TrEMBL record:
Keywords from the UniProt entry: Coiled coil, Membrane, Transmembrane, Transmembrane helix
UniProt keyword Membrane, yes or no: yes
One of the GO BP terms on file: cell adhesion involved in single-species biofilm formation
Organism: Pseudoduganella lutea
Protein name: diguanylate cyclase
Record domain GGDEF: where: 367-505
Domain of life: Bacteria
Transmembrane regions listed in the UniProt entry: 6-24
Length: 509
C-alpha cells in the first residue's frame, strides 16, 4: 500500500482537532441547555405546588368561617341579638384573615341582613348575583366558588365563596358569602421570581381566570376554555407540564399546572422559555465565537504548517535530485579529468600522479617499480598516408590492445603519455617483468595486422623501452625511471623498431 505523505496526516490531524473542538462545544452547549430547561421545569413545578397549597389554605380558612356562620345562623336564628353577635364575629374574622375582603349574610330574598362592614346598607340587594341564584336553585351543601366580581361594598375585585343557608324546614334561607380579595393572591404571587416574562394564574375548573400575574383587570373572569393549557388540564392530566403559547400575550412558556386539593380550582406557573434561554444564548454565542476563532486560528496555522512542510519536502526532493545530478556530473568530470579522450586510457595527469604515488610506495616497501614506454612506429608516415582521423583510429586500436595486455594488479596503469607515445606503469615489477609485459604488448599490436604501407613490415608495429628501479630516498626516482624507459625506447627505435629493449643499468640492480 502506498504510504500517505506526512502533510496528509498533518491536515487530517488539524481538521480532526478543529472538528472535535466545535463538536465538544456544541455538545456542551446542548447539555447546558437541557439542564437549564429541566431546572426551569422543576422551578415551575415547585412554584405551582406552592401556589396550589397556598390557594387551598386561603380558601379553606375562608370556608371555615362560612361553615361557622352557617351553623350559627341555622341553629341560633337571626334575632337582633344574634345578628349583633354575628356582626362582631364577622368583623373579627375579617380582621384576622387578610385574604377576606368581607363576610356577608343575605336572606332568602337577597336582602343584606348582616355583614362585616361597619355600616349596613339595608336597601342593598344581591339577589341578582350568580352565586345567589345558584344556591336558591341547588340544595347541595358544599361551598361554591363564583366568578370574580367587583365588590359592591368596596369596589375591589373579589372571588365569592358562598354557602347555602337552610331554614329548619329545609327550604332556602339565604346565603353566607365570603369575598376573597384578589389582591391577596396578587401580593403573594408578586413575591415569586418568575422573570420579566413569567406568568402565574389561578383558574377555576370551568376555565375561568381568577387571578393572574401580570395582573390585568380586563383579564379577570375571562374564560380560558379555548387554550392549550386548559385542554391539557382537562384532557391529558390534571397535573403536568408542557410548553404552551399564551393566548393572553402570545409568549411561549414552560407551564406547570396542578389542581387544588380541596376546591375545584387549578393553578399554573409558567416561565418564559425565551427569557430562560436568553443567558444561555448569550453565553453560547460568546463561547462559540471563541471556539470558532480558536478553530479558525488552528486551521490557519495548520494550513501554514502544511504549506511549509510541503515546501520543505519539495526543496528536499529538489536538493536530492540536484545532489544526484551533481554526483553523476562529478563522476563524469573526474573521469574526464583522469581519462584520455581519444584512447580511453589514463591521461598524462593521472599517470604523473600514479607514478609519484607508486614511486613513494615502492620506496617505502623497498620493491621495484617498472615502467614501459611504448611508441607507434612510423606513425607520422601513417598519418600522412591515411589521414589524421585514420591515425586516431589506429591509436585507439593500439591502445585497446595494450590495455588488454596490461596486468590487472592494483596500481598497474596504462596511460597515454603524449602524442602517439604510451606508458605502462607496473608496480612490484622488475625490469625483466616489465620487458616481458611490453613484449606481450608488442606481439598483440603486431597480431592486429593493421595495414601500414609506410612501414617496412607493411603493418602497424610498436617499439617499447622497459625499465625498473627500486626507489631510494633523496633521488627523483620517477624522473629517472621515465628517462631510463625513454632511453630504452630510443634504443629500440634505433635498432630497427618493432622490438622491446630493457634499460641496461637496471640489469645491475
Ligand atoms: N593521428 C594522430 N597523430 C598523432 C597524434 N599524436 C601525435 N601524432 C603524430 O604522430 C607522429 C609522431 O611522429 P614522430 O614522433 O616524428 O615519429 P614517427 O613517425 O612515429 O617515427 P618513429 O617514432 O621514429 O617510428 C606525428 O606526425 C604526430 O603528428 C594523435 O593523437 N593522432
Amino acid at each position: 500500500m502506498k504510504r500517505l505523505p506526512v502533510t496528509f496526516w498533518t491536515t487530517l490531524f488539524v481538521t480532526l482537532v478543529c472538528v472535535a473542538l466545535v463538536a465538544l462545544d456544541f455538545d456542551r452547549s446542548w447539555l447546558a441547555r437541557k439542564v437549564l430547561l429541566e431546572q426551569t421545569e422543576r422551578n415551575a413545578t415547585n412554584l405551582a405546588r406552592a401556589m396550589s397549597g397556598h390557594a387551598d389554605d386561603t380558601l379553606r380558612a375562608a370556608d371555615t368561617c362560612l361553615t361557622d356562620l352557617e351553623e350559627r345562623i341555622e341553629v341560633d336564628g337571626t334575632g337582633p341579638a344574634q345578628l349583633q353577635r354575628l356582626h362582631r364575629l364577622m368583623v373579627d374574622h375579617v380582621r384576622t384573615l387578610p385574604q377576606l375582603n368581607g363576610l356577608f349574610f343575605y336572606d332568602e330574598t337577597g336582602r343584606w341582613i348582616v355583614n362585616s362592614r361597619p355600616r349596613l346598607d339595608r336597601a342593598a340587594n344581591n339577589a341578582d348575583r350568580e352565586y345567589f341564584r345558584y344556591h336558591r336553585e341547588h340544595r347541595d351543601a358544599g361551598p361554591r366558588i363564583g366568578k370574580p366580581v367587583a365588590s359592591r361594598s368596596t369596589g375591589r375585585w373579589v372571588i365569592p365563596l358562598s354557602r347555602r343557608i337552610d331554614k329548619p324546614d329545609g327550604s332556602f334561607g339565604g346565603v353566607v358569602l365570603a369575598t376573597i380579595d384578589i389582591e391577596y393572591f396578587s401580593r403573594f404571587y408578586a413575591g415569586f421570581d418568575i422573570g420579566n416574562n413569567g406568568a402565574v394564574a389561578l383558574l377555576s375548573d370551568d376555565g375561568t381566570l381568577l387571578v393572574r400575574r401580570p395582573f390585568k383587570s380586563e383579564s379577570v373572569g375571562i374564560s380560558s376554555v379555548r387554550t392549550p393549557l386548559y385542554d391539557a388540564y382537562t384532557r391529558v392530566a390534571r397535573t403536568g407540564t408542557g410548553e404552551f403559547r399564551s393566548t393572553q400575550d402570545g409568549q411561549v412558556r414552560l407551564n406547570s399546572y396542578r389542581p387544588l386539593q380541596h376546591y375545584p380550582l387549578f393553578v399554573t406557573a409558567a416561565l418564559s422559555k425565551d427569557e430562560v434561554l436568553a443567558h444561555w444564548w448569550h453565553d453560547t454565542l460568546v463561547r462559540t465565537a471563541g471556539v470558532l476563532l480558536l478553530a479558525g486560528l488552528l486551521a490557519l496555522f495548520g494550513q501554514r504548517l502544511v504549506r511549509q512542510m510541503r515546501q520543505r519536502l519539495r526543496a528536499e526532493q529538489e536538493l536530492r535530485e540536484a545532489r544526484d545530478v551533481l554526483a553523476s556530473l562529478n563522476v563524469t568530470l573526474e573521469k574526464l579529468a583522469l581519462q584520455d579522450g581519444l584512447t580511453g586510457l589514463a591521461n598524462r595527469r593521472q599517470f604523473d600522479v600514479s607514478l609519484g604515488n607508486e614511486s613513494s610506495r615502492a620506496m617505502r616497501q623497498g620493491v621495484p617499480l617498472g615502467l614501459a614506454m611504448i611508441d607507434v612506429d612510423h606513425f607520422k608516415a601513417y598519418n600522412d598516408r591515411y589521414g589524421h582521423s585514420a591515425g586516431d583510429d589506429c591509436l585507439r586500436a593500439v591502445a585497446r590492445a595494450i590495455r588488454q595486455q596490461t596486468p590487472k594488479r592494483a596500481g598497474d596503469l596504462a596511460a597515454r603519455y603524449g602524442g602517439e607515445e604510451l606508458a605502462v606503469l607496473l608496480p612490484h615489477t622488475d625490469a625483466a617483468g616489465t620487458e616481458a609485459v611490453a613484449e606481450r604488448m608488442r606481439e598483440a599490436v603486431a597480431a592486429l595486422r593493421l595495414p601500414h604501407a609506410g612501414s617496412p613490415l607493411g603493418i602497424v608495429t610498436i617499439s617499447g623501452g622497459a625499465a625498473a628501479i627500486v626507489p631510494r630516498r633523496g633521488i627523483d626516482h620517477a624522473a629517472v625511471l621515465v628517462e631510463h624507459a625513454d632511453r630504452a625506447l630510443y634504443a629500440a627505435k634505433a635498432t630497427g623498431r618493432n622490438r622491446v629493449m630493457r634499460h641496461a643499468e637496471l640489469r645491475e640492480t
